[in-house]
Amino acid sequence: MICYFESYEALSAAVLELDSLWPEVDIDARRVPLTSPVGAGGWLSWGVDPSDSWDESWRQMVCEGLAVGLTRTRGSTTERLRLALARMEDLGIDIGSWKPSKENFNHTANAL
Fold first, then answer.
1. Is there a contact between 46 and 11 (Cβ–Cβ < 8 Å)?
2. Segments making up each domain of the chain, as ranges
3. Would you list the DSSP string of 27-71?
């Protein structure tokens, strides 16, 4: 199930409600790619898309950025991966959580 929220506060309220309804739920969660875990149970995740002023989707930008970094560089697999991840960081992406930087996504600055 995918839900859209107008603000991070609305998302947080929904997460608290869902966590309280199913505090001991045993779900074999499969995280959605390019999202971050949220809530106590580990079975909810969230992501954010760029503002309407962007010409492409967030996931498309990440996938294309990684593809370019992996295919247009030379060296070992490890070196190409290191350069691809460095490119993502240069684009303002936290590669630990796969969240965009506040500077790149001004409309979500309060959510990050």
1. yes
2. 8-46, 58-111
3. ----PPTT-EEESSSS-EEE-----TTSSS-HHHHHHHHHHHHHH
pLDDT digits (tens, 9 = 90+) for 55-112: 667 778 788 888 888 898 888 989 999 989 998 888 778 888 777 765 655 444 333 3
Please tell me the distance from the alpha carbon of residue 66 to that of residue 87, in angstroms, as a whole number: 8
CA distance 61 to 90: 13
Q: What is the distance between the alpha carbons of residues 89 and 83, in angstroms, rounded to a whole number? A: 10
Closest CA to 43 of 57, 29, 33, 54: 29
